[in-house]
## 1
Amino acid sequence: MPRLVARRAKQKVGLVPGTLVHIGERKIEKVRIRIIDYDETQLEEKEVEKVEECFPFKDKPTITWINIDGLHDLEIIEKIGKQFGLHPLVLEDIVNTGQRPKLEDFENHVFVVLKMLYYDQEKGELEAEQISLIFGQNFVISFQERVGDIFDPLRERIRKGKGRVRKAGADYLAYALLDSIVDNYFVILEQLGEKIEDAEQELAVNPTLETLQTIRTFKKEMIFLRKSIWPLREVVNSLERGESSLVDESTLIYLRDVYDHTIQIIDTVESYRDMLSGMLDVYLSSISNKMNEVMKVLTIFAAIFIPLTFVAGVYGMNFAFMPELGWQWGYFGVLLVMAIVAAVMLVYFKRKRWL
Amino acid sequence: MPRLVARRAKQKVGLVPGTLVHIGERKIEKVRIRIIDYDETQLEEKEVEKVEECFPFKDKPTITWINIDGLHDLEIIEKIGKQFGLHPLVLEDIVNTGQRPKLEDFENHVFVVLKMLYYDQEKGELEAEQISLIFGQNFVISFQERVGDIFDPLRERIRKGKGRVRKAGADYLAYALLDSIVDNYFVILEQLGEKIEDAEQELAVNPTLETLQTIRTFKKEMIFLRKSIWPLREVVNSLERGESSLVDESTLIYLRDVYDHTIQIIDTVESYRDMLSGMLDVYLSSISNKMNEVMKVLTIFAAIFIPLTFVAGVYGMNFAFMPELGWQWGYFGVLLVMAIVAAVMLVYFKRKRWL
Amino acid sequence: MPRLVARRAKQKVGLVPGTLVHIGERKIEKVRIRIIDYDETQLEEKEVEKVEECFPFKDKPTITWINIDGLHDLEIIEKIGKQFGLHPLVLEDIVNTGQRPKLEDFENHVFVVLKMLYYDQEKGELEAEQISLIFGQNFVISFQERVGDIFDPLRERIRKGKGRVRKAGADYLAYALLDSIVDNYFVILEQLGEKIEDAEQELAVNPTLETLQTIRTFKKEMIFLRKSIWPLREVVNSLERGESSLVDESTLIYLRDVYDHTIQIIDTVESYRDMLSGMLDVYLSSISNKMNEVMKVLTIFAAIFIPLTFVAGVYGMNFAFMPELGWQWGYFGVLLVMAIVAAVMLVYFKRKRWL
Amino acid sequence: MPRLVARRAKQKVGLVPGTLVHIGERKIEKVRIRIIDYDETQLEEKEVEKVEECFPFKDKPTITWINIDGLHDLEIIEKIGKQFGLHPLVLEDIVNTGQRPKLEDFENHVFVVLKMLYYDQEKGELEAEQISLIFGQNFVISFQERVGDIFDPLRERIRKGKGRVRKAGADYLAYALLDSIVDNYFVILEQLGEKIEDAEQELAVNPTLETLQTIRTFKKEMIFLRKSIWPLREVVNSLERGESSLVDESTLIYLRDVYDHTIQIIDTVESYRDMLSGMLDVYLSSISNKMNEVMKVLTIFAAIFIPLTFVAGVYGMNFAFMPELGWQWGYFGVLLVMAIVAAVMLVYFKRKRWL
Amino acid sequence: MPRLVARRAKQKVGLVPGTLVHIGERKIEKVRIRIIDYDETQLEEKEVEKVEECFPFKDKPTITWINIDGLHDLEIIEKIGKQFGLHPLVLEDIVNTGQRPKLEDFENHVFVVLKMLYYDQEKGELEAEQISLIFGQNFVISFQERVGDIFDPLRERIRKGKGRVRKAGADYLAYALLDSIVDNYFVILEQLGEKIEDAEQELAVNPTLETLQTIRTFKKEMIFLRKSIWPLREVVNSLERGESSLVDESTLIYLRDVYDHTIQIIDTVESYRDMLSGMLDVYLSSISNKMNEVMKVLTIFAAIFIPLTFVAGVYGMNFAFMPELGWQWGYFGVLLVMAIVAAVMLVYFKRKRWL
């Protein structure tokens, strides 16, 4: 699971606000810059070595999508910032991966920070990555921590001209990126949901301390998910309200769709939290039940044999004058008495439903 | 119980927004299309094979209610969408049964998604179905996942001309459909309520681990109900505020009535949640009480017989010189002492209210 | 306690909205209709057989209070509805006793539904009754489920001309009715409060499973009270804001007074809920404490006598060569050793504060 | 602790609203009326026998503070009400000590009800008293249930002309009274805080059932404090917003100061509530820990001695042919075996960290 | 940990509002006054003995930052107050270290109170210090309880002219101070986070009562942090909304940045609270699990040996006629039976998964 608090603090304290410091794990070797430039009729796609190669596209009327994988090369970020007129604080937010999802609306561009989640099947852990989007009149710039495959279907759609994307503007492209990310949350939630149901099954069959640890891990993941998705709701909402002049009215209905999905995700996370709380209750009760079971076994054994042992002890005494000891049927009589005592006990426990 | 998260994710990721994909179980073999077309004086009712047969009704001034059972035939949905000018995202929502209840107000039609609930008496489980309503100036289109009987009384009323329905417009018809669905929630809650009271009764008499499972199932059903009904409140509320020009003022008081019912249902769900929490507390206490009971039995047996066994053990020792062993009344004296010890113990436990 | 969900559902599903069906228990044999007609100078009071006898009062400028006890005679309700121009949905709400408290403001009358509570001392249970009030320019109509005595002091005040009531309008009369009902909540809370304090006392002295049941019953009653009183707050508040033209400005301060009382009642219910939660904690701890007590007794007995029994067992062995057995003071020596062991144990438990 | 619900109900039900009935304990023998009349240059202070002696001050331009200790003499209250034009409902609120803190703004005076708290060191209990303030253009009337010393420093300041009080108006005097009361809450909270910390200390050392009772008492006191202080916040806030024309702008900053203090008190109460919940958790865990301890002692004793006793029992059997019994070193061999078994057990428990 | 309620009460009750009394610990011997006066081109920095030396800077157009470490010298505070036209209540708040974070906007200066936190690594405790900031057109005055190093990097930036600080106004300097403080919260949270993770590790390995105490201490620290940071949010928010004319528009985006950080800190504190609650659950379950373990050991020992001891007891009886005693293989037969009983028991417990 990603840390609840990103290690941002020590490196940053005391620096000039707006100083670029890459905070977070370096997840990729070399920064990869890909450009797709398109309008309804034409499409140009290339991967560039130097960031400067992107700049000529800026002044063309076509839609330009610059996708940057890797945040550690601060020079690239700085050059883009200069070229596209981004505020130093925006650049600082892009390279500091401990951001809370947020939207900032500048006059000629909108800046959005999001969390993208992966579920690492091997480790069984949530992984988070920060994605920053900047879109203006005719460009979208996306920053990722590493090369991902989540935008591939979108790229394919652009290439093939499927859907509205080639006809619509940069705002629609930004929406499509957002939509890909939000759709991905559903995948994560489904995977988590299956794991949770497995844990529930296990809990019903054989609850162990490990089951508790599993429940707790899920709870922590839900805390993390919640922390990522609640602010996302505000982000999408403020886009969907149509306050930015960069968002075309025809895109608003699509953003409303994303907003509905976000609400649905939040609902689901809350439902899972409720489920996990319920599982904890079941776990605690099953421990109590088990202890009850153990106690009953002990008590049944003790209550049956302790009186019998006492009787045996009595006739093991060495008193000179113990008349029963001389009786011919004394021994068998005592055995009979013992059997009766045991039977009475068993009936008693049967009645108490302990057996 | 329906899944908390509908399996929507994997099929959808990366598709063009607005692509029609039927998500959910296919609950019916063949799509069934029924039309009722009426005004105050005349009524026409028929079941059609081809969706195109519905379209002539569209331009007639009479109210047309098209009821479509089954969502898997995407062609039908698409044709209707084209004919009635529905947005692709609306069509997508209709066939994706994992929607959250919501209302979308377009210029010339209003789109409402709802959850209809059934209580499957055999399985003892809640079943959910998605219902979509679209109403415009003179038409209502309803989409259901399977053929249901919930709208039959309404159909009967239209046929017989009972109530306002034949005199009022499409908005009143839409209200009447909504009202049928909301009324049905009361039936569900009543059935659940009876089951919960049964479980409460059982809890008081003989709480077992199964009782806990039952309580948990109810809790999960309440989470599901809540998830379905909370957004319904917003839906009805936004209709009832009269913001849509398609809703006549005279219908508003009826919508207010539905709104009141929705609030009442929410109240009831919350009350049940509180009750179920209380039942969990009782369950946990009753486990503790049982363990207490078991412990007391053990302790009474142990405390009475352990000292006696000790005494018997003492006189079972083989020391050469043990004067008591030679006494004539030694044995009976010891038996008497044992009886006294046991009696003292019993009095002690009586005082402690353990007996 | 009244049911949390009134059995409304099954009879109603599929009926035309506005159809009159009396839902709820029939608490009275014959409907009783009483009229008080008054102004500052004159007063007429009578009990009528037929509802039509009320109607002449309607057009007189004097204030007319029609009090109807019993809701099952739908014909009476319908006639009143027709005469006073009430909406069919209002009439439906009057006879359906499962309503949530609410206020509806029509142009020429205001409709208020409330819950009246009784505490049945014999059964030790809360009883609820639905009261509907309709007031217009110069009339107030009140509907009760059975003949009650709660309005008697008000009637007396009207007869004797005490207070403002004879000088003020129908809105003041409606306020006075509301005030009687809200004042009655205080009585209920006081009675419940005494019972809760009794239960608390009992809990401190001898907590049993019954105490838990009592606490739970109170909790459920608090849920019910809350459900009745929270919406009342909105009702009074919307009256008190003076939005209705039927409420005179001079009455507003009185309504504010009722509003203050409602808030105070809600506060008290919340405080009781907190108290009851605290009592549950005490109950659970006292169970744990008791078990601790039981365990200590068991452990003390076991820990003292088990070693002693072992020693006795050793000297009960039949080895041919056991030198101690032949010693003269062997027996007494062993007894001494046993006494010392027991004493050490006792000191040890004393130190552990188990004794 | 004061009762959570004041006994107001039974005496009041059915009375004309505005009827004066003193509800609450009579805490003082004879009503005491004190007047301070001052402006910047002069000061007159006296204690009067008859309330009528206050009235001449009313029309003087100087600030008049009438302080009335004791609420049971309804005649005095009524005369003041008449003289100062107070609404009957205000008078009713003054003498009914079960009020919730509130502010009512009339045209020419403002009415404030508050709770004053004392901590009775002897009984270790919170005591509450109701204080009503009425201030107009040039007068302040304060009603207390008994003679208190809380306003003495303020009186002294007026006499000595310290601070702004002699220069400012009646609104500042009212503020100063409010400030004295709110400052007193800090004293109460400090005293309670010390007691809570004592209880926490005790909890860490030796938690008993009494500790639980203490925690619960504090919890109930916090419920009570909360009930008193939350509405106070609204009272001060509505004064501080400067809506009343009776409050001078220069006084607003002082009211904001009081408001800050109120928020701080609420914060503190909430923090104490959190602390007390934490203490309950610790209490419950310490019970469980103790039981664990007890169980371990029992188990260690049982697990060591039960096998040994069994061995002793075996060689206590009276079989004719038991070869070991004849061995010379049989006895000592058995003793050795026993010692080894015990040692193994001890090592085992050591490893399990039970020792 | 700092006290949840500062000891403010007793010294203050009854004093004239605005009286300067230093409340809180005296953390420094002698008050230290440092001045930095700068504009874009020049810089003057000095440490003065007498506060009067600061005043000439006031009327210069350059930005003046007066930093005062130590609050106990009331004369200095008073002189500054007089010189800069501060309200007596502001001065009172500065020297009373029990303030809740708040912002007060006066016409020509803004007053901000904050909490600065330190984590004392040695004591393992949070330490809090109150910081007051006052900024006007061209001056910032900061008051600290003791000499700290938190503003040193900012001083360095001013000296070296790094960043915007030398070019911007007093509002930017105030922002920079705020930013330093908020950044420091991240450091604290990181340190606390590491400690919490350590405790979590410990909890998984060997939960003891001390672990519980540690968890509780963290919980209390979270309560304290929350109390300090929630109001900070409002403070920054009200600055960021740009309501004060003293805050330049270009500074707003920086304040928004601080606001984002504050939200992030609040999020993190809430996440930690959730984590700590989860740890408490784990602790309680692990106690129950341990007890279960103990009980199982006891039960296994008891259930195996009690029946065997009983059998041994039977053949230890001294009856004259016990045929088995005479059998040659009687003894070994009994031993065999015993071994079988023990084996059966072990298999039984194996099946029950107790072994």
## 2
Amino acid sequence: MIVEMKTGASQGEVDDVVQKARSQGLGVQLNKGTDKTVVALLGSNTGQLSTDIFAVLPGVESVTRIMKPYKLASREVKSQDTLVSCSGVEVGAERIVIMAGPCAVESKEQLMEVGAAVKKAGASVLRGGAFKPRTSPFSFQGLQKAGLELLAQAREQIGIPVVTEVVDPHDVELVSGYADILQIGSRNMQNYALLTNVGKSRSPVVLKRGFACTITEWLTAADYLLAEGNDQVILCERGIRTFEDSVRFSLDISAIPVLKRSSHLPVIVDPSHAAGYYSLVPAIAKAAVAAGADGLLIEVHPNPKEALVDGLQSLTPSDFTRLMEELRTIAKSVGRYI
Amino acid sequence: MIVEMKTGASQGEVDDVVQKARSQGLGVQLNKGTDKTVVALLGSNTGQLSTDIFAVLPGVESVTRIMKPYKLASREVKSQDTLVSCSGVEVGAERIVIMAGPCAVESKEQLMEVGAAVKKAGASVLRGGAFKPRTSPFSFQGLQKAGLELLAQAREQIGIPVVTEVVDPHDVELVSGYADILQIGSRNMQNYALLTNVGKSRSPVVLKRGFACTITEWLTAADYLLAEGNDQVILCERGIRTFEDSVRFSLDISAIPVLKRSSHLPVIVDPSHAAGYYSLVPAIAKAAVAAGADGLLIEVHPNPKEALVDGLQSLTPSDFTRLMEELRTIAKSVGRYI
Amino acid sequence: MIVEMKTGASQGEVDDVVQKARSQGLGVQLNKGTDKTVVALLGSNTGQLSTDIFAVLPGVESVTRIMKPYKLASREVKSQDTLVSCSGVEVGAERIVIMAGPCAVESKEQLMEVGAAVKKAGASVLRGGAFKPRTSPFSFQGLQKAGLELLAQAREQIGIPVVTEVVDPHDVELVSGYADILQIGSRNMQNYALLTNVGKSRSPVVLKRGFACTITEWLTAADYLLAEGNDQVILCERGIRTFEDSVRFSLDISAIPVLKRSSHLPVIVDPSHAAGYYSLVPAIAKAAVAAGADGLLIEVHPNPKEALVDGLQSLTPSDFTRLMEELRTIAKSVGRYI
Amino acid sequence: MIVEMKTGASQGEVDDVVQKARSQGLGVQLNKGTDKTVVALLGSNTGQLSTDIFAVLPGVESVTRIMKPYKLASREVKSQDTLVSCSGVEVGAERIVIMAGPCAVESKEQLMEVGAAVKKAGASVLRGGAFKPRTSPFSFQGLQKAGLELLAQAREQIGIPVVTEVVDPHDVELVSGYADILQIGSRNMQNYALLTNVGKSRSPVVLKRGFACTITEWLTAADYLLAEGNDQVILCERGIRTFEDSVRFSLDISAIPVLKRSSHLPVIVDPSHAAGYYSLVPAIAKAAVAAGADGLLIEVHPNPKEALVDGLQSLTPSDFTRLMEELRTIAKSVGRYI
């Protein structure tokens, strides 16, 4: 942490900074420049320390953090890639993992039809929402517990693991009983009560990026899960909020190489929620694989015209099958397979 | 809702749109332009209807919503201003309501000292956090239940109502037992489980704007509370995420006149979390009052240098007292008082 | 264009809208809904008409544009892809065009060395800046005319076309005399004096996206060039400004499929300025090719450590050569070649 | 400037950083932490030095700038407020300066009518655009030279100074011949050819903030003007681009106190372009004065319904007169006058 004093700060003000630092167990090195004094604070935990406790002192101009505020999710703490194991499917290995299925579980017929179709096309995980966080209270809120039961049936019948979202901290145990992988949605990335409870479970978890959160904040949220002992964390980039209005969210493609450099956790991409429009999904999905994503989360619906939720961004099974062919050649060209 | 067909869309494609609209109980008016057909869909509930169900149909170029997706929070549904009554303090009336206090309740001494000071300076509500949502799992998380008890003591001893944040949907009843006003934080504005439970309570509630949510999304979140029967809703602008990095968040000053035009709910402003820096707080607070805010939520700490949370953005009691003097003259100049 | 009247708007207010529309030569269709009247305005030029002239009338709630404000750049006006021919190199065809070279022309040795290296690795156009728009007046501003002369020498000696930026509207003729392709930089995308003059020239032009401009605004800027008669326009996505601070700009990968849908102009991508950091460039470059880009603009410097401008985002010739190998396999996997 | 080495960086890599720094004339202080080495670079010009020249060296993790990249516009270089003198009107003094008039000069009648009206209501400068940068090539582009002549007539007849925009670097002398104050528009804030030429003139200049530029970038653009010797610079906040879509741009109210803290230049606010809608203008204007703005730039049109440009955001003369009354009481409440 670097504390820049104001031009003309008094010796007493510098001393106060030094004393505060020492009281926190930090090492101190003074740099007296021509115009101003700069104090370097040294220690292994400065990333977790608030910059405010120094910025608030008189005579301080600014405080700059050098260490990142996250720790357990960082590559500095763990240099090897983490592999997340989901009922037999490994995320973060050479194989790129495709999770596909409907936005919302609507009925047994719908789920079984799409589940069979995506598995046949090469998906290794079935996705489907039972609890649906909706922006409007007047929209369909999901089948809830009945949806979980359908997911469990689908897993058994079709033979692939399932991933579904948990929205209430008190439902973690319930949802873990039915699903192989828990999903924390974008709007809940900083729901700390939920993060803490999911961290206490041992289920693999897909942590979606908050749509207006920086990568640093995202990895700090991952630290909540890791700090509770759950190291089975998959990061999912799903688009960020920008001024561009031709898509629902702007997919942050550079998040993939940035995360690969700064974290050991596997990274998947959800092109469907970012685009918000089915015809844009294939280009974004291909880009994500080319950029190094470890997997994709794609919405597929047997009949998008009749979907209760997000039909516009869902692929049909035949579109999905065609996309899978293209993704296979891209995967191969970056030394991986699907 | 306006459905624009693609240039060259077939008659059958137009018919499908018309039929879908009629099946939803909507009126239909066809506009055949020189280049393309535009279909207007008419009905009183088109704001709550998903645009996707039309956008997904073949031959459709775009679908534009005319009605807003929120309803109960809108001035079209209720034209008179809502007054929120908080244990004797009215928000939304001629008097501008100042809520002040520490970010986090740290101890009895701290809370009583600052509570007495802000009341003396003219604040009518005491704020203080017991449950603290923190970006890092390694930061101080609040005194929790012990903090609530201190707040209840402060209310009794100092004689002003208290506002505090609730973060877990299952704590709504607990927190309501201690506090006069519940606060839903920015990171929870779209936590629908929490919104639903707070909506079921009858406590007045401060709904902070999600830091990356539009005003439309914010009012749609307010609809969750109103739809459950809680009409004691105060909106709180607290800054939005932008590219500007000299402040923590950019206060959206134009949100005040926009909300006054489109909603009947009272609006307050939190300059402390927006600025993130104490010396910027007074200018923003004064601007908010001049722009028509019904109240302010300001952080005050007896000794910001020792604050466990957000010391940098807290005013000292003496700075707060001076600011209150300035705010009184501004309030008077816009025909109100404090 | 759709004009939504306020609830309770009078007949006279509706009549005024209708009359205004007719005075502009527009067709009118009235839609009287249960709550409010909606007026559809029909005509082939409503995209170029200001919405304000209706929004300002009494009784009007909102005005929504259905037609896009750009015209000549749109696929509706020209459905076939435009091929831009640059001294023998075609942009927009099956071959993906790689433009590479240093950010700034620094010396003859530097330019010849990197020019030969990028050509050998497969680049078909040499890039290099002679006029450098710099955020600080104290930074190196480019070799200017001497830089143009070096570029012309490099073109002759190495045998590939060159692209360079023009920043002053009065330099268009000068720069056209030396370069095969003009570049309009991100900060000049809405410099209309410059757009008009480049539009009057017949040189192919790379129009970079303004870093905070929507795709609609970008295509409207392209209309300035096209309206003056220059149809040799290449669009270049180079990252947009967002809240994310781990990169210089966030590359908008979905701009590629969005542009392919709405415009006939070829699209290239500049991963170097987006990332701002050399080690992120390859992932973004590969993603762009997978998503359908028609070309790339990449910074290469023989010795990034000594570069006068943007060394941090420049690849070395050997890194570039390795990247070209990877790009060739990706290009092949999407049915193209380099 | 602070250079953070990677964990495990070699002694040779640290030495290279030290040597590079010394070659730039910088002082160096080494901080060997428990995990990593941090090198502080000291000198009075580190703000103007590119961070890249260090970031590109092997073994470097990150480089953090402590000094700001701007210099001449900073309060550290000049602590007293700058007063800008515009043909008898001082900007930055106790009197708040109101500049008002039409977006575009349309005719002699229009300009004289609105000029007389705004002067009568208390404005001290008349604004009016002769060269109009328009997003669409099909929109009205201004009366150009004829508009300048009308402005000069209005100045003489009405007796107040005029401000107008210059868009082409080669028109600076021409426009200076007619106008008292030059305006550099938002889209030209980083048009360096224009900045340089305006910097060479001695006319007072209103430098509008680029709508997606940080305050740091804005002050660095001001340095271009100051470095050429023009110290008569007025900064104008006019709204920034955010995700919020209920206004054209989000006015950054906190820019006012931030600028007052970091720069000596006067600050005015343009509420009209930010809001984009006349009924929002008064609230934003009042907020700006309360927050400490030194002036306002407001659009007024005798008949907004017939305005050729931006009618929707223009006040009528009678609305403007009413607003001026309200602004006077706000000004008084912050110790100033109009």
